[in-house]
Amino acid sequence: MFGLKRMRQQRERLYFRTQILEKRAKASRDKAADNLLDTATSPTGLLASFALGASTQLDITRKARKNLLNGASRDVASFLVAQVAAYMNNEPTKNESEMPVDEDDKAPSEAAIPPENTNV
């Protein structure tokens, strides 16, 4: 009456079909996990993993080396500029090197410094 028997049978068929599909899906997931594990532990998988890791490491080291070289080149350039500036400021001219230097110009004598007052 009203097709209830047919609807119940259809529902049971759908339920059994769902059960079968769930079992297949579980088996498929297990198989995929096993295949993935087998592939990852195989020489090909290990080589691929190593290549990916090495490329990541090389990228990181390349960036670190670039940053280090940029910093070092800035430090070296500033050091050289400072050395050149110091050399240019301290370089005697021809006229100064040919002129005789008096003893009084070299350093102040001890006689020029008044003795400290020791009377307290």
Outline the secondary-structure elements.
Elements: H1 4-41, H2 43-90, H3 94-98, H4 103-106
List keywords for this structure.
120 residues; mainly alpha; 4 helices; 79% helix; 0% strand
Protein described:
The protein has 120 residues and is mainly alpha-helical. The chain contains four helices and no strands. Helix 1 crosses helix 2. The protein is rod-shaped. The mean pLDDT is 76.
| Helix share, percent | over 70%
Beta-strand residue fraction: under 5%
Coarse shape: rod-shaped
Question: What is Rg?
Answer: 45 Å
Q: Could you give the order of the helices and strands?
A: HHHH
Uncertain runs are none
Distance between the termini: 133 Å
Number of helices: 4
* Strand count: 0
Structural class: mainly alpha
What is the makeup of the main sheet?
none
Q: Would you tell me the overall average pLDDT? A: 76
How would you briefly describe this protein structure?
The protein is mostly helical. The chain has helices at residues 4-41, 43-90, 94-98, 103-106.
